[in-house]
Amino acid sequence: MHIATPHGPAIVELDEVSDPRFLFVLTHGSAGGVESADLLAVRDAVVAIGGSVARVLQPFRVKGGRAPGSPAKQDEAWVALVAAIREKLPGLPLAQGGRSNGARVACRTARAVGARAVVALAFPLHPPGRPERSRVAELRDAGVDVLAVSGDRDRFGVPDAEDAARLVVLPGEDHDLSKNPARVGEVVADWLCPRFP
After folding, report:
1. pTM over 0.90
2. CB neighbours (10 Å) of residue 164?
3. What are phi and psi of 2, to 5 degrees?
4. In this structure, are residues 80 and 9 in contact, taking their beta carbons and an 8 Å threshold?
């Protein structure tokens, strides 16, 4: 489905379950889409524990862009589209997440959308080779519990344990978390399940 935002339409792929326990809104990184192996594995794992999942192609990607542009505009679009998704699935508690740039958006907007929890896949702690340009404040200041899942070979850096409610570092994985996507999904489902009884 297409959802209008102040910065263009977003496209949402919705996987609903009967009698859902919660809604999980999930998005991609800067140059990616919602069909990446890790996002599909997370979708499958969350659906299996009773969550309805909305995978969001953000407006800048719908327009063909590879860079998200202004964080303020990206966040404004995100808040609008999450509100529209929640109107279609009213009354469900919300978790949200994303990979890379999408993890940043999920952390920055968690309070604004009323999320109970955030999943940050491959959170880009800093640009490659530029550790002095840390983005750790976005992760630490989400205002809700955050699960951070990173590969131990991620060139964008790996958060420290104190940066999130839970940190899982997967051996042999790099920024795309593609070696064992099923494991990524399992980690996410195991963490979300007790939060949405």
Report:
1. yes
2. 23
3. -95, 135
4. no
Q: Are 196 and 93 in contact (CB under 8 A)?
A: yes
- Distance (Å, whole) CA 86 – CA 156: 32
Whether the Cβ atoms of residue 60 and residue 90 lie closer than 8 Å to each other: no
Spatial CA neighbour of 97 closest among 81, 120, 74: 120
Domains and their CATH numbers in the chain: 2-195 (3.40.50.1820)
**3-state class (DSSP) for residue 195:** helix
d(CA 122, CA 183): 14
pLDDT digits (tens, 9 = 90+) for 55-70: 999 999 999 888 888 9
Joined tokens for residue 6 = 């102040």
**Exposed e or buried b per residue across 22-37, where buried means at least 16 C-beta atoms within 10 angstroms of its C-beta:** bbbbbbbbbebebebb
Residue 38 corresponds to which tokens in the numbers above?
A: 């890790």
Which residues sit opposite 54 in a β-bridge?
14, 25
Chain Cα centroid distance, residue 99? 5
